[in-house]
Automatic annotation (TrEMBL):
Keyword Protein transport listed: no
A cellular-component GO term for this protein: membrane
Location, primary (coarse class): membrane
Protein name: DoxX family membrane protein
Pfam name, any one: DoxX_2
Source organism of this protein record: Leptolyngbya iicbica LK
Keyword Zinc among record annotations: no
Subcellular location: Membrane
Lineage: Bacteria, Bacillati, Cyanobacteriota, Cyanophyceae, Leptolyngbyales
Transmembrane portions of the chain: 46-64, 71-91, 103-123
Keywords: Membrane, Transmembrane, Transmembrane helix
Annotated membrane topology: Multi-pass membrane protein
Superkingdom to which the source organism belongs: Bacteria
């Protein structure tokens, strides 16, 4: 068993907490999120609040066995949906406090979205049952 397989449950918890925190930040510190919404999208503030609420709900959903797969698919969709905002931030050099506006940072940050998509996708498949010790 490799590190990822051994720590799948822990990593699911990490992703869930990250999503809840990110969602809360959409409400507590909405201005930076509003600034990176592309101009072609309507109602940037509403989109930020809606995406924040969705992040919170999907983060919690990852922790509930009955909703885990649905939440994971939702996160895959969300990570794809917010990519234009991340791209907008990079292309237009939108400065956000605490986030470097440097080519090297964007060169890491934008492809990292694929890592997030893969991480969420990992939970779209049902887990394998633990090996049984019966009969041994």
């Amino acid at each position: 068993m490799n590190f990822l397989t051994q720590n799948k449950t822990t990593l699911r918890g990490v992703l869930a907490v990250c999503m809840v925190v990110a969602g809360v930040l959409h409400f507590a510190q909405s201005t930076p999120f509003i600034r990176i919404v592309p101009d072609f999208l309507p109602a940037p503030a509403a989109l930020v609040y809606i995406s924040g609420a969705i992040e919170i709900l999907l983060g919690i959903g990852l922790l509930v066995p009955a909703t885990r797969q649905f939440a994971a698919w939702g996160l895959v969709a969300l990570f794809i949906a917010v990519f234009p905002a991340n791209l907008n931030m990079a292309i237009n050099h939108i400065k956000i406090a605490g986030i470097p506006d440097a080519w090297w940072f964007q060169a890491i940050r934008l492809p990292f979205q694929l890592v997030l998509i893969a991480w969420a996708y990992w939970y779209t498949r049902p887990g394998r049952p633990a090996p049984s010790s019966e009969g041994h």
